[in-house]
C-alpha cells in the first residue's frame, strides 16, 4: 500500500514541477512578445514624429536622436536576454530592466581615474584648476544637494558639476558624456540643466555685475595705463553662438552670414573680464538693435550706469565711456570709430587706430571664452532656453577661471569658427557724443 502511495506522491510532485516549468516558459514568451511590441510601437511613433517635422535641418537632429534611442533600446534588449539566460529569477525582474541597466554602467573613470588627476590633467580635462572646481562645488552645494531615496543613491554634487562642465567644455553628445561618467543620457541632460541654472542664479550675481564707483575708477586707470585711453571703462561687442534651427520662428535666428545663431553682447574691462552681458537675442538682430534693447542701454541713457566722474580733456569735461565698433551708435557714454569716407586727417586716423587696438580686449575675451568652452563653437543642439543658460554659464565660468588665473593653453585657441556677421551703422546727425569724441581725437594726437 505504502509503495502505491509513494509513487502517487512522486507523480503528483512531477506534475507540479512540469506545470511550474510550463508556466515559467509561457511567461517568458509572453513577456518577450510584449517587449517587442512595445519597442515596435516606440519606433513607429518616433518615425512618425520625425516625418512630421521633416522641416529644415531640425530633421537631422531628430534622426540622430532617433538612432541614439534605437541603439539604447537594442542595448537594453541585449542585456535583458543575457539576464534571462543566467537565472529563472530574471523573469521576475524583467520588467525592471531599466533600473538594472543603469546599474550596469561603469563610473570607474570618474571614481578612480579623474580623482587622481594631476593639476595639469585637471586643467586639460575640465578647463579649470581643481581649486576653481572646488570653489564652484562649494558654492552650488546648497542648491544642488539631493538626499538619497529608497530606490537609488543620488549622484554627488561634484560628479554632477563635472558632468555639466564636460558638456560645456566639449559639446559632446549627451550619450557619450553618459558613457564616460557611467550615467544615463537623461541624467546628463538633467545635470547640465540644473548646474547651468545654479551657476546663473548663484555665481552670476557675484562674478558678473556692474562695477562699483571705486572699481570703475580702477578700470579707467588700467585702460589709461595700458592703452592710453583716458576715462575708458569698457569695450563692448557682440558675438554669435551657433545653434541648430529652432522649431519655431527659425527664420528669425538666421544671421547675416546665413547660419542660425543667438547673439551674445558683452562689456569687458581691461583684463578680459566681463562686467555686463546680454544673451539670447535671435541671430537676425543687428548689434545696434541688441544694445538698444538691453538693460545696459536703459541704465546708461538714464545716467544710472556710469558714475559722474569727469576729467578735463582738451578743454572738455569727459565722463566715463565704453568703446564699441562701427555697429554701435555714438553717445556721450559710447565712443565709436569715425566713419572713413577717405577724408580723415592724421589725428582722426590715429583715434580710429587707437580705438581698434584697445578694442582687442573684447576680441581676446571672446577667443578665450570660446577656447575654453567648446559648446559655444559648434552648433548647440540643446533646447533654446537651455542654450541661453549655457552661454551665460560659460561667461561666468570664464570670469571665474580668469580671476583665479587658471592656466590657459594656447592650443585651445581656434580659428575654426564660423564667419561672424558684421554690422555697420551709418552715422547720421551730430550728437552730443561728437564733442567728446573730438576732444579725444585732439588729446590722442598730442
Ligand atoms: C588613487 O588615489 C588613491 C589615494 O588617494 C589610491 O588609493 C588609489 O589606488 C589611486 N588609484 C589609482 C588608479 O591610481
Ligand atoms: C537693425 O535692425 C533694426 C530692427 O531689426 C532695423 O530697423 C535697422 O534698420 C537695422 N539697422 C541696420 C544698420 O541694419
Q: How would you describe this structure to a colleague?
A:
It is a single chain. The protein is an alpha/beta fold. The protein folds into three domains: 2-104, no CATH class; 108-206, Cyclin A, domain 1, CATH 1.10.472; 209-377 and 414-445, no CATH class. 57% of the residues lie in helices and 9% in strands. The protein has helices at 2-52, 58-86, 89-93, 97-104, 108-113, 119-126, 130-144, 157-170, 174-181, 185-207, 213-227, 287-292, 295-301, 346-358, 360-372, 384-403, 433-445, and strands at 232-242, 261-268, 274-282, 310-313, 316-319, 321-323, 334-335. Helix 9 (174-181) crosses helix 10. The termini are far apart. The model is unreliable at 52-60 and 85-104 (pLDDT under 50). InterPro entries: DUF8040 (IPR058353), HARBI1-like (IPR045249), HARBI1_dom (IPR027806). Its main location: nucleus. Keywords: Hydrolase, Membrane, Metal-binding, Nuclease, Nucleus, Transmembrane, Transmembrane helix. Its cofactor is a divalent metal cation. This is Zgc:113227.
Give average pLDDT, whole number.
84
Discrete helix count: 17
Q: What is the CA-atom radius of gyration, in angstroms?
A: 30 Å
Terminal Cα span:
129 Å
Instruction: Using the alpha-carbon principal axes, give the shape.
Output: elongated
Oligomer: single chain
Strand order of the largest sheet: 3-2-1-6-7
Low-confidence parts: 52-60, 85-104
Structural class: alpha/beta
Secondary structure: number of strands: 7
Work out the count of structural domains.
3
Order of helices and strands: HHHHHHHHHHHEEEHHEEEEHHHH
| Proportion of strand residues | 5-15%
Helix content: 55-70%
Q: What can be said about the biggest beta sheet?
A: 5 strands, mixed
**Ions, cofactors, ligands: which are bound?**
2-acetamido-2-deoxy-beta-D-glucopyranose
Cofactor: a divalent metal cation
Pfam families: DDE_Tnp_4, DUF8040
Domain DDE Tnp4: 236-399
GO molecular function, one term: nuclease activity
Amino acid at each position: 500500500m505504502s509503495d502505491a502511495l509513494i509513487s502517487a506522491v512522486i507523480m503528483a510532485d512531477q506534475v507540479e514541477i512540469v506545470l511550474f516549468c510550463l508556466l515559467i516558459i509561457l511567461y517568458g514568451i509572453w513577456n518577450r512578445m510584449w517587449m517587442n511590441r512595445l519597442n515596435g510601437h516606440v519606433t513607429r511613433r518616433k518615425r512618425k514624429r520625425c516625418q512630421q517635422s521633416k522641416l529644415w535641418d531640425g530633421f537631422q537632429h531628430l534622426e540622430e536622436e532617433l538612432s541614439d534611442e534605437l541603439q539604447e533600446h537594442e542595448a537594453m534588449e541585449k542585456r535583458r536576454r543575457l539576464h534571462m539566460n543566467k537565472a529563472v529569477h530574471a523573469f521576475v525582474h524583467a520588467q525592471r530592466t531599466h533600473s538594472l541597466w543603469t546599474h550596469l554602467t561603469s563610473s570607474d573613470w570618474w571614481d578612480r581615474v579623474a580623482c587622481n588627476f594631476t593639476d595639469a590633467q585637471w586643467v586639460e580635462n575640465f578647463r579649470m584648476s581643481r581649486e576653481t572646481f572646488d570653489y564652484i562645488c562649494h558654492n552650488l552645494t546648497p542648491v544642488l544637494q539631493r538626499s538619497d531615496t529608497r530606490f537609488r543613491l543620488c549622484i554627488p554634487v561634484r560628479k554632477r558639476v563635472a558632468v555639466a562642465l564636460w558638456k560645456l567644455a566639449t559639446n559632446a553628445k549627451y550619450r557619450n558624456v553618459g558613457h564616460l561618467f557611467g550615467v544615463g543620457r537623461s541624467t546628463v541632460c538633467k545635470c547640465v540643466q540644473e548646474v547651468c541654472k545654479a551657476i546663473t542664479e548663484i555665481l552670476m550675481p557675484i562674478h558678473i555685475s556692474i562695477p562699483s564707483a571705486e572699481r570703475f575708477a580702477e578700470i579707467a586707470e588700467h585702460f589709461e595705463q595700458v592703452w592710453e585711453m583716458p576715462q575708458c571703462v569698457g569695450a563692448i561687442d557682440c558675438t554669435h553662438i551657433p545653434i541648430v534651427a529652432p522649431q519655431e520662428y527659425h527664420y528669425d535666428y538666421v544671421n547675416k552670414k546665413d547660419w542660425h545663431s543667438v547673439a551674445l553682447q558683452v562689456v569687458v574691462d581691461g583684463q578680459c573680464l566681463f562686467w555686463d552681458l546680454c544673451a539670447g537675442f535671435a541671430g537676425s538682430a543687428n548689434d545696434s538693435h541688441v544694445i538698444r534693447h538691453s538693460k545696459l542701454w536703459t541704465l546708461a541713457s538714464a545716467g544710472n550706469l556710469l558714475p559722474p566722474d569727469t576729467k578735463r580733456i582738451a578743454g572738455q569735461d569727459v565722463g566715463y565711456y565704453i568703446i564699441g565698433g562701427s555697429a554701435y551708435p555714438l553717445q556721450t557714454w559710447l565712443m565709436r570709430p569715425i566713419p572713413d569716407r577717405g577724408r580723415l586727417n592724421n589725428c582722426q586716423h590715429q583715434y580710429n587706430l587707437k580705438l581698434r587696438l584697445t578694442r582687442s580686449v573684447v576680441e581676446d575675451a571672446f577667443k578665450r571664452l570660446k577656447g575654453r568652452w567648446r559648446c559655444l563653437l559648434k552648433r548647440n543642439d540643446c533646447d533654446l532656453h537651455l542654450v541661453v543658460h549655457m552661454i551665460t554659464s560659460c561667461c561666468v565660468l570664464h570670469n571665474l577661471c580668469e580671476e583665479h588665473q587658471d592656466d590657459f593653453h594656447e592650443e585651445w585657441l581656434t580659428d575654426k569658427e564660423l564667419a561672424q556677421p558684421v554690422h555697420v551703422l551709418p552715422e547720421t546727425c551730430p550728437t552730443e557724443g561728437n564733442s567728446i569724441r573730438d576732444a579725444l581725437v585732439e588729446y590722442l594726437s598730442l
